[in-house]
Design the sequence.
């Protein structure tokens, strides 16, 4: 089995590479990644010398690079994680989100048709369902929830999903799509809520909570996500969408307070800052379909996963301290300077 994993130097992609190499030691995995600010080759160090792994630096939207690689490797399966993934950055500069997330998906699917890939899997997000009201805890996202989008990021991911379904219907490409909730765990770039708050708390810096902190996310431990994608690749049906997540809802203030408690820092570090434009209120997944059809449910409860995550950031300080010592400082000043 030869598998292309795009975006494998990023947070979820790298965890997926590790997961697949552990669960399927006979698979050959090629990672294509442009190494943007979010990609980190150091993360992949443990697998770089494996005969079952190859890293290729390249842009998924670059047709020549992608077609050459497909010609060379003859992939059985493609899993597309490569994306611009941060909502706040998409509000600052939408263009690159459209290029990577939409055109990159198109190029990968064109190559998958030409080289007759057996399965193309698109890693999507629950943000394509818009948001749910805070006062209706009985409502959840199902695969039939209408597509809508609040940010340029979610609009670009929704476009990619629509294109993937169109390629399935029009060209018969064997596409599956997964839409997961917010992931957390090792190797997440410290621009996202959980690692940013862990890093700030450990440095006794203010913890910038947007708006009132009441916004709710449905937290999915990254290994549970990787297992779900593996199950979809094994038994998922082409043309189908699978939601991944469920039953780990927390509001942002609860998340931040949990982190502070666990690292022994005071709640006085919490600072309420200006809200995100278009800020989605609540995400919550109904995982009934993937549970019924593939037998998947999340196994890591938030209270356990957050402990594992904090321990990982404590044990791997050099990984994230390196990241936040460079360009990240500029980013932080720009995004939080006069919020
Ligand atoms: P990430 O930002 O940590 O990593 C993205 C990776 O893609 C990086 O390694 C980057 O270098 C690479 N990349 C970016 N542009 C590229 C290009 N043009 N060509 C090749 N590689 C490129 O993102 P993540 O959090 O690991 O997310 C992975 C996927 O999962 C994305 O598609 C994202 O939309 C989706 N997703 C993430 C979450 C989450 O909570 N993190 C939730 C739902 C869906
Ligand atoms: P984020 O990790 O950016 O994921 P997403 O926007 O895809 O859900 O943000 C998670 C939640 O945390 C979201 O409601 C915005 C909020 N947030 C803050 O309050 N402060 C921050 O500094 C960041 C990065 C996020």
Sequence:
């Amino acid at each position: 089995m030869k598998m292309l994993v795009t975006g494998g130097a990023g947070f979820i992609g790298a965890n997926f590479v590790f997961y697949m190499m552990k669960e399927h030691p006979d698979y050959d995995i090629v990672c294509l990644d442009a190494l943007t600010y979010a990609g980190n080759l150091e993360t992949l160090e443990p697998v770089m010398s494996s005969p079952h792994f190859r890293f290729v630096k390249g842009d998924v939207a670059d047709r020549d690079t992608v077609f050459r690689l497909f010609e060379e490797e003859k992939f059985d399966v493609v899993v597309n994680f490569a994306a611009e993934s941060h909502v706040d950055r998409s509000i600052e500069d939408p263009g690159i989100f459209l290029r990577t997330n939409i055109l990159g998906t198109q190029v990968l699917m064109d190559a998958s048709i030409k080289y007759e890939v057996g399965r193309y899997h698109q890693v999507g997000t629950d943000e394509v369902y818009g948001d749910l009201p805070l006062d209706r805890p009985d409502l959840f996202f199902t695969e039939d929830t209408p597509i809508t989008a609040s940010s340029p990021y979610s609009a670009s991911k929704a476009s990619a999903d629509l294109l993937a379904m169109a390629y399935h219907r029009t060209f018969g490409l064997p596409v599956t799509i997964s839409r997961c909730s917010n992931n957390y765990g090792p190797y997440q770039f410290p621009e996202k809520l959980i690692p940013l708050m862990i890093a700030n708390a450990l440095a006794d810096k203010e913890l910038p909570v947007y708006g009132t902190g009441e916004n709710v996310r449905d937290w999915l431990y990254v290994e549970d996500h990787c297992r779900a994608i593996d199950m979809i690749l094994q038994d998922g049906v082409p043309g189908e969408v699978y939601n991944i997540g469920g039953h780990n809802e927390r509001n942002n203030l609860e998340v931040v307070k949990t982190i502070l408690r666990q690292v022994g820092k005071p709640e006085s570090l919490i600072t309420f800052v200006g809200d995100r434009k278009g800020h989605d209120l609540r995400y919550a997944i109904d995982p009934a379909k993937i549970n019924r059809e593939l037998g998947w449910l999340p196994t890591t409860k938030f209270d356990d996963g957050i402990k594992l995550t904090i321990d990982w950031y404590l044990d791997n300080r050099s990984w994230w301290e390196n990241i936040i010592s460079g360009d990240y400082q500029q980013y932080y000043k720009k995004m939080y300077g006069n919020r």
Notes: The chain has one domain: 2-336.
